[in-house]
Design brief:
Helices cover about 35% and strands about 35% of the residues. The chain has about 160 residues and is of the alpha+beta class.
Length: about 160
Amino acid sequence: MISTQPRGFIALISSIVISTILLSLAASLGQGTFFSRFDALNGEYKTISRGFAEACTNVALLRIADQYSYAVQDDSDYDTERSGVVVPLGATYGTGSDCLIAAPTTTPAEVNQTRTYTISTQGMFKGAYTNLVTRMRVANPNATPTLPGSDPVTLLSTEEIP
């Protein structure tokens, strides 16, 4: 009697196990690359939102230059729903963009013919937000400068808050 022993069973099982390991390794590497693209895209959105917040800071500074005692609540563009002045920035990637001047607050009184303004702005772009708080010292435009050649605006600090 001839008996036939099953051959190749170990080779078949080991090839299945090795194939499964290689397939899961390739899938996990591909998934990491896929999600890293979205991380990079979110970083770009954050950069754009920071630029929007800085643009709003510049608009607030221009409004302070135009009216030395500028207050957000007195602005004709004040939006009560968003608690600030919405500044339209045009279209970016096919969508309308804006930023928000939340609160330029001033020191209670002038010191050496200057006021210190704290300007809070928010830039938003596709779910990425940047909140900036900028402190500036602004000289009274109606007063004579105490020092010749002194800057009418001095940037004291800018920080991003969560």
